[in-house]
Amino acid sequence: MNFSWMAWTLPTALFFGTIAALLIGMAVWEYFSPGGNPRHGILRFETTRGDRLFISLLGSGFINLAWLGLIGPQLWWALALSLVYAICVFRFV
Amino acid sequence: MEKTWNNRAWFLVLPVLLLVAFSAIIPLMTVVNYSVQDTFGNNVFFWAGLDWFQELLHSPRFWQALARNLVFSGIILAIEVPLGILIALNMPKAGWGVPVCLVLMALPLLIPWNVVGMIWQVFGRVDIGLLGKTLSLLGVDYNYVQDPVDAWITIIVMDVWHWTSLVVLLCYAGLVSIPDAYYQAAKIDGASGWSVFRYIQLPKMHRVLLIAVLLRFMDSFMIYTEPFVITGGGPGNETTFLSIDLVKMAVGQFDLGPAAAMSLVYFLIVMLVSWVFYTVMTNYGQES
C-alpha cells in the first residue's frame, strides 16, 4: 500500500508520535489509577485528567500560534511555555 | 457482590475506532503533513516549515474572513435561539395543531443547502425575484449583488428561515418533557408567566438549548454552501467566510499548503469555541 499521498515528514511523524505516546501514557495512568481523578480546580468546574490533557493540548496549540504570529518562527520557547502551561493545568485546574 | 472488571468490552468500540481513523484521523494527519510543505502535484512535496502558518497569521484576508465568521455566528445565535424559544413556547401542546406545526417546522430542514441558496438567490433578485421585485416596487433600495449590507441581510434572513426550525424542535422537545406537576405547583404559588419561564421552562430546556447553541454555532461558523450560491462571497469579499476562502485557496488556487495551515487554525478555533460553549452551558446546568 502506497502512503506517499500522506506526505509524511520526520517533524510531523514526531508530533503525532508524541500525541500517541501521551494517549498511551494516559491509558496506562488510568489502568493503575482508575476513575480519572475528577476534581474542582481554579476554573471552578469538575475536570478529569483527560479534560486537563485536552485543555493543555488546545492551549498549547494557541500558545504556539500566538508565538508564531507575534514573535517569530523559533518555537522552542513557545514549546517550553506550553510545557509550563500544561504542568500548571495538571496542577491547578 | 464484588463486581468483575472485564475490559474485553472495549473491543466493541473497535469498528467505530477504525471508521473514525479512516474518515477523520488519517485525513487530519494528512492535512497536518501538507501544512508544513508545498506541492505542485504528482505527490512531490517541498519542506516549507512554518511559513504557511506565519503567512496566514499576518494575512489581513484571513483575519477579515474570521471576523466575518464570528460576527455572522454571533448574529445567528442572537436571533435564532430567542426566536426558536419564543416559537416553541407558542406552539400547541396537544390536539391537531401539534403534527401540523411539527411538519411545518421540519420542512425547511428537509431542503438541501444548495437548493436553499438557489431559492434565496432567485427570491432576492431585483429583476425577477418576489422579494427583490416587491422591495424595489415599494421604493426600498435593495440589491444583494451590489450592496454588502443587503447581501448580509439576505444571508442572515435565509439562515434564520432555514435553521430556526431546528432550535424550535429541540426547545419544543424540552418543553413537552416538563411534567404537569411543575405548572400546577407554579399555579398554586401564583407564579407569573415570566417566573414560570425563568424558573421552570428555561432550566428544564437547558440541555436541549446546549445542543441547539452548539449545533447552530458550529454550523454557522462553518457555513459554505448557501452564501456561496447566493453571493459567491461578494460583493467584493464582503460575504467571504473562512470556508469560502479555504475552498478558493485549496481548489481554486491549488495552494494546498496554505489551505492546510488555514484548515488547522480554523479547526483549533472551532474546537476552542465549542469547548467553551459546552463547558459553560454544562456547568450552568449543574449550578442551577
- Globally, the shape of chain A reads flat
| Major β-sheet annotation of chain A | 2 strands, antiparallel
In helices, the fraction of residues of chain A equals: 55-70%
Give unreliable regions of chain B as ranges: none
Please give a structural write-up.
With 93 residues, chain A is mainly alpha-helical. Chain A has one domain (4-92). Helices cover 67% and strands 4% of the residues of chain A. Chain A has 3 helices and 2 strands. Chain A has helices at residues 10-32, 49-70, 76-92; strands at residues 39-40, 46-47. Chain A has a two-stranded antiparallel sheet with strand order 1-2. In chain A, helix 2 runs antiparallel to helix 3 (76-92). The N and C termini of chain A lie far apart (44 Å). In chain A, 6% of the residues are buried. With 288 residues, chain B is mainly alpha-helical. Chain B has one domain: MetI-like fold (Orthogonal Bundle). Chain B is built from 12 helices and 2 strands; from the N terminus they run αββααααααααααα. Chain B has helices at 14-35, 51-57, 60-90, 97-110, 113-123, 130-137, 148-176, 180-188, 193-221, 225-230, 242-252, 256-287; strands at residues 37-39, 45-47. In chain B, strands 1-2 form a two-stranded antiparallel sheet. In chain B, a hairpin with a 5-residue loop joins strand 1 (37-39) and strand 2 (45-47). In chain B, helix 4 (97-110) packs across helix 7 (148-176). The longest helix of chain B has 32 residues, at 256-287. Chain B is globular. The model of chain B has no long low-confidence stretch (mean pLDDT 91). Chains A and B meet through helix 1 and helix 2 of A and helix 1, helix 2 and helix 12 of B.
